Prior knowledge:
By secondary structure, the chain is of the alpha+beta class. Helices cover 50% and strands 11% of the residues. It has helices at residues 7-11, 14-24, 32-39, 41-53, 80-98, 114-127, 145-148, 151-159, 165-176, 207-227, 247-265, 298-316, 322-336, 342-351, 357-361, and strands spanning 63-67, 73-77, 136-141, 232-236, 239-244, 274-277, 282-284, 287-289, 294-296. A four-stranded antiparallel beta sheet has the order 4-5-3-6, sandwiched between helices. It has a three-stranded antiparallel beta sheet with strand order 7-8-9. Helix 2 crosses helix 5 and helix 12 (298-316) runs antiparallel to helix 13 (322-336). The N and C termini lie far apart (83 Å).
Amino acid sequence: xxxxxxxxxxxxxxxxxxxxxxxxxxxxxxxxxxxxxxxxxxxxxxxxxxxxxxxxxxxxxxxxxxxxxxxxxxxxxxxxxxxxxxxxxxxxxxxxxxxxxxxxxxxxxxxxxxxxxxxxxxxxxxxxxxxxxxxxxxxxxxxxxxxxxxxxxxxxxxxxxxxxxxxxxxxxxxxxxxxxxxxxxxxxxxxxxxxxxxxxxxxxxxxxxxxxxxxxxxxxxxxxxxxxxxxxxxxxxxxxxxxxxxxxxxxxxxxxxxxxxxxxxxxxxxxxxxxxxxxxxxxxxxxxxxxxxxxxxxxxxxxxxxxxxxxxxxxxxxxxxxxxxxxxxxxxxxxxxxxxxxxxxxxxxxxxxxxxxxxxxxxxxxxxx
Length: 369
């Protein structure tokens, strides 16, 4: 493996820190925290540069909130000044790690994403549709992925291509964040009401955590392709699918891969893992996929309808502006464009109407009316 030196020097370069600031502020530039940082931008960037150079840099106390869709989970948010530094680190590290990624991993990678992942899987399903014997599909999902990866596993794989102690010091500081525990028990049902575990897990919601998740899974991708020789294999972060021409082979690959995950990465497959006929329809990246069609998952279409109802209601009271509302409907129409859901799309277009009702209610009646 190629080793990279002097990465830290490129990381703390003023121009790279400024690029990190621009990335961190994207779509957030008018938030109070961002405006405050921008008001003394040069001083703040030089201060970050000095803290990194003299190893006094640390992650300040983070805020935490609960995300309920698509499932209930804890999201931690760094102060903006730390997000700037993380984005600057991502700028120099991402090209290094990206070179080693398996070609059919689609999560958190610019230019790929869920639509291309769904299309690639469907393409493979069509390739094997008329082959004999009938092919099988195994869908695998990792239990509490971001909350179960051991800290030493994260550091081991992040350090592999680096010959730069200073950069490794920063990664260790960034992953530990403000020192709070991130891990969750395997059997945790309610993430808001269980004991957190030190030494495992990572902050969820940053570029560093997304990058780390992909880096940690790189060797697993190579193992399932090169050692277990799964003919067709695709991964979207911690959701994985492979196709094989034999039910026995599917069981063998799944069992050996499960052992590999536990022994090498400290991870477990969850109860969603299943082996099914390839043409039975499988849920992947928020869609249900068959060889001849791709549909939105029922829960996704329900959430979309609820979100659009929310947008219409709060536009009518003036709480949401027109630009935001149009961006929402355009986003959903873009998603549906890649699915077989003409009836749903027509229904959404028919029902989505924006009316400022409060203007009518406050309108003065003409004299003599």
